[in-house]
Amino acid sequence: MKKTVLLVGTGLIGGSIALAIRKEHDCFIYGFDINFEQVEKAVSLQVIDEAVRDLEEPAEKADLIILASPVEETKKIMKILASYKLKEKVIITDVGSTKRDIMKLANELWNGDVTFIGGHPMAGSHKTGVESAKAHLFENAFYCLTPQTTTPYEKIEELKKMLKGTNSKFLVLDAEEHDYITGAVSHFPHVIAASLVKQVKKHSDQNPFISMLAAGGFRDITRIASSSPRMWKDIVKQNRDNLLDLLDDWIMEMRNVKSILESDENGKAIARYFQEAKDFRDTMPVRAKGAIPSYYDLFVDIVDQPGAIAKIATILAENEISITNINIIEAREGLLGVLQVTLQTEEHRIKARTVLEQHGYETY
Ligand SMILES: NC(=O)c1ccc[n+]([C@@H]2O[C@H](COP(=O)([O-])OP(=O)(O)OC[C@H]3O[C@@H](n4cnc5c(N)ncnc54)[C@H](O)[C@@H]3O)[C@@H](O)[C@H]2O)c1
Ligand SMILES: O=C(O)C(=O)C[C@]1(C(=O)O)C=C[C@@H](O)C=C1
Fold first, then answer.
1. CB-CB contact of 242 with 179 (8 Å)
2. Under CATH, what is the fold of the domain 178-263?
3. Which atom of ligand 2 sits closest to the CA of residue 121?
4. Nearest C-alpha to atom 6 of ligand 2 is from which residue?
5. Which fold has domain 3-173?
6. Could you read off the pLDDT of 240-288 as tens digits, one per residue?
7. I need a surface site. Which of 66, 95, 207, 236 has the fewest CB within 10 A?
């Protein structure tokens, strides 16, 4: 039977989940957003079927409710939903970056009558809004699920089935553990990225060349600082204690770096420090989405001369490989440059690599 889905928050993540669900299931999707323009856009982009201005009626009809708003807003919506007469078999899930506060509230509001399964796809973007939504955004990424202790196994399987089109790898976690882990690998790096940008801003007030010369390294390490401050303020609020611990840890680490730099006459200690970091990073699943990098990147050596990029773009287009993004790094006039080509899937990356190598390009 055709399922009814209600999506609350029709932005980047909500829109991407809706598209992924549509890919696999014949269902009717209602969309609600405090910004009505976003829901109307979601209808025109065929992400959802109908825009609603009121939650109650579609919520009471829904088999699946997906909450995809900033995490503090999600708590408010959960309280509103708890006052409705929802279907007995309904599953409510969310996509929020934090899980502990949300699961605590779910346990207070629903005790077996309604199923609430916390969710968090570990992939995304610094962009916002439904116009950036993509069905394949979560492909190969981990998708954390934090069920209530009372949630039957079959309900978790039912939710996974509904989310099958995301092509992600589901991982059931305890909410506390989730927030500790994501604090370390997602929330704290966000704070560091923002603080690096602030530091450069301070220096660029004194020397305007600083911003001009900021190149690939600075861009890579600070990309996430361009994410939505609205979304991140809620995440940081809900994971404050883990972030404070991580900050203490980081301050100690920086003191350690400082003392190495002060005493390291021949550079051996700092080289060892960099080597240890490199060794660990190199063991991380670099091609897996949600880890490093967050897209399917292919690096191509090119001679930095007019037409070089067009040639590569043409070869890829002729082979029906779509490019998500293209970037020149380390380009110096007359020398070899590196083209970073971002593709949509791992299959496209492998195919692109094969066809470019057939044309004599060196790729990695
Ligand atoms: N962006 C990422 O990389 C990423 C990845 C995984 C999870 N998340 C989580 O996904 C959620 C959504 O983030 P996003 O990136 O899609 O942001 P977004 O800004 O693209 O979308 C959020 C949408 O929620 C709407 N909204 C805000 N308050 C609302 C309310 N009270 N009722 C209904 N709609 C409301 C906004 O108008 C907006 O359209 C957040 O909880 C975030 O923590 C984000
Ligand atoms: O790729 C990005 O822009 C992200 O920041 C995505 C990212 C992350 O990896 O930290 C950010 C928040 C989410 O909760 C999950 C994923």
1. yes
2. 6-phosphogluconate dehydrogenase C-terminal fold (1.10.3660)
3. 15
4. 124
5. Rossmann fold (3.40.50)
6. 999 999 999 999 999 999 999 999 999 999 999 999 999 998 888 754 4
7. 207
Which bound ligand lies closest to the C-alpha atom of 289? 2
User: Which CA distances in Å does 299 have to 71, 219, 302, 347, 349?
Assistant: 36, 16, 10, 15, 10
Of 3.50.50.60, 3.30.70.260, 3.40.50.2300, 3.20.20.140, the CATH number of 296-358 is 3.30.70.260
Q: List Cβ neighbours of 240 (8 Å cut-off, separation of 6 or more).
A: none
- Range in 15-29, 134-148, 159-173, 289-303 with the lowest mean pLDDT: 289-303
Mean pLDDT of 21-25: 96
Instruction: Please say whether the beta carbons of 319 and 351 come within 8 A.
Output: yes
The Cα–Cα gap between 285 and 288 comes to 5
Q: Are 130 and 38 in contact (CB under 8 A)?
A: yes
The radius of gyration of the chain's CA atoms, rounded to the nearest angstrom, is 23
Domain regions of the chain by residue span: 3-173, 178-263, 296-358
Which band of pLDDT confidence, cut at 50, 70 and 90, is reported for residue 74?
very high
Position 292 scores a pLDDT of 42
| Ligand 2 pocket, CB under 6 A | 97, 122-126, 186, 224, 227, 294
Could you tell me which of 113, 128, 133, 116 has the C-alpha nearest to residue 17?
Answer: 133
Q: What's the pTM value of the predicted model, to 2 decimals?
A: 0.84
- Residue 300 CA to ligand 2 center (angstroms) comes to 26
Q: Is the pLDDT of residue 316 over 50?
A: yes
State the Cα–Cα distance between residues 122 and 211, nearest whole angstrom. 31
For ligand 2, atom 2, which residue shows the shortest CA distance? 125
Given this model, what pLDDT does residue 4 score? Answer: 98
Share of the chain above pLDDT 70, in %: 94
Q: Which of 13, 15, 21 is nearest to 5 (CA)?
A: 21
User: DSSP state, 50?
Assistant: E
